[in-house]
């Protein structure tokens, strides 16, 4: 049963993401000057819950000036390093249980 739900949920997330209706966690940091996108998620509450872990990871890495925004969007680039003028694409995977 879990496999069926997992596959159904993954299909819904992929469809929502394709349509630009999926939820993403956008995290901007002042030092380093970066913007990160984590997702996609099926709903706001799942994205908001998962954001806690992303914030903790960034704090451990020494990021400062962290601003979090949970929103519906369809980011083209998942990591934008503004200090370096670079864009990095991490492999996009549907988020289940807070994993990206």
Write the layout of secondary structure elements.
Elements: H1 2-19, E1 23-29, E2 34-41, H2 44-60, E3 67-72, E4 79-81, E5 86-88
Antiparallel strand pairs: 1-2, 1-3, 2-4, 4-5
Describe this structure in words.
InterPro entries: DUF1816. This is DUF1816 domain-containing protein. It comes from Nostoc paludosum FACHB-159. This protein has two helices and five strands. The chain has helices spanning 2-19, 44-60; strands at residues 23-29, 34-41, 67-72, 79-81, 86-88. A five-stranded antiparallel beta sheet has the order 3-1-2-4-5. Strand 1 (23-29) and strand 2 form a beta hairpin. The model is unreliable at 96-100 (pLDDT under 50).
Q: Which characteristics define this entry?
A:
100 residues; disordered C terminus
Describe the structure in brief.
The protein is of the alpha+beta class.
The fraction of residues assigned to DSSP E strands is 25-35%
Main sheet properties = 5 strands, antiparallel
Strand order of the largest sheet: 3-1-2-4-5
Number of helices: 2
How many angstroms does the end-to-end distance come to?
Answer: 22 Å
Q: Kindly state the percentage of residues in helix.
A: 25-40%
Global shape: elongated
Uncertain regions spanning at least 5 consecutive residues:
96-100
**How many strands appear in the DSSP assignment?**
5
């Amino acid at each position: 049963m879990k496999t069926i739900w997992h596959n159904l949920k993954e299909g819904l997330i992929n469809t929502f993401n394709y349509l630009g209706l999926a939820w993403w966690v956008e995290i901007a940091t002042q030092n380093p000057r970066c913007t990160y996108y984590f997702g996609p998620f099926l709903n706001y509450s799942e994205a908001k819950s998962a954001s806690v872990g992303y914030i903790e990871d960034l704090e451990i890495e020494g990021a400062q000036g962290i601003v979090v925004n949970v929103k519906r969007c369809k980011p083209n680039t998942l990591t934008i390093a503004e200090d370096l003028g670079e864009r990095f694409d991490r492999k996009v995977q549907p988020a289940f249980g807070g994993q990206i």
